[in-house]
């Protein structure tokens, strides 16, 4: 079983829509989680950390469900600039990445 | 404040050759991690350096080696290159007090 598995997508949504996707992780002892964003042929950039109580950063909301070992990301009021690959990341001394979920926001 | 920098940007090598990639961490960061990202995949952890020593290592063969210098910069060396080593090599740095890692722009290695 892979350490981190994600909805591969792609998710193709109109501007202004809400899009949400999940990832699951295998190590129940994992303590810290992140969402990174990666644009085509660029480096991953930290989008947000994911806290146990869930957290929000503007239009982005991250949730953590420890019992079911999944993490979710929700994007509200999608913008064209949100088009990217979103990487789910678990930090167990090293970063373990999912393969990414591709989101395309269309005009 | 400079972020993580890597050199070179692109590199083309032939099978069997050796390559050295370089990374300078973000100011204030002392830990450097290296990742390999194949096309369509998430980055895979190679190893991490702290206090000039390899602290952790992923599932990569001994052909992959590294070094960290007193100024915290780091090198990744790959010997006996294979076609399958073609990938984007990413360096990430972090500070002692935080879990987040910040990535450099990467080195795109092509092995022919």
Brief account:
The complex is a heterodimer of chains A (107) and B (112). Chain A is mainly beta and 107 residues long.
Task: Give me the number of helical elements of chain A.
Answer: 0
Share of helical residues of chain B = under 10%
The low-pLDDT segments of chain A are none
Helix and strand content put the structural class of chain A at mainly beta
Measured by residues with Cβ under 8 Å of the partner chain's Cβ, the largest interface is:
A-B, 20 and 24 residues
First CA to last CA of chain B: what distance? 37 Å
Q: Helical residue percent of chain A? A: under 10%
Shape of chain B: globular
* Percent range for β-strand residues of chain B: over 45%
Q: Compute the gyration radius of chain A: what is it? A: 13 Å
Shape of chain A: globular
> What is the percentage of strand-forming residues of chain A?
over 45%
Number of strands of chain B: 11
- In round numbers, the mean pLDDT of chain A is 93
Give a structural overview.
The complex is a heterodimer of chains A (about 110) and B (about 110). Chain A is mainly beta. Chain A is about 0% helix and about 55% strand. Chain A is built from no helices and 11 strands. In chain A, strands 2, 4, 5, 9, 10 and 11 form a 6-stranded mixed sheet that branches. Chain A has a 5-stranded antiparallel sheet with strand order 1-3-8-7-6, with no helix packed on it. In chain A, a hairpin with a 1-residue loop joins strand 9 (about 85-90) and strand 10. The radius of gyration of chain A is 13 Å and the shape is globular. In chain A, about 35% of the residues are buried. The mean pLDDT of chain A is about 95. Chain B is mainly β and about 110 residues long. In chain B, a hairpin with a 5-residue loop joins strand 7 (about 65-70) and strand 8 (about 75-80). The termini of chain B are far apart. In chain B, the strands form 2 sheets. In chain B, strands 2, 4, 5, 6, 9, 10 and 11 form a 7-stranded mixed sheet that branches. The interface of A and B includes residues 32, 43, 91 and 94 of A.
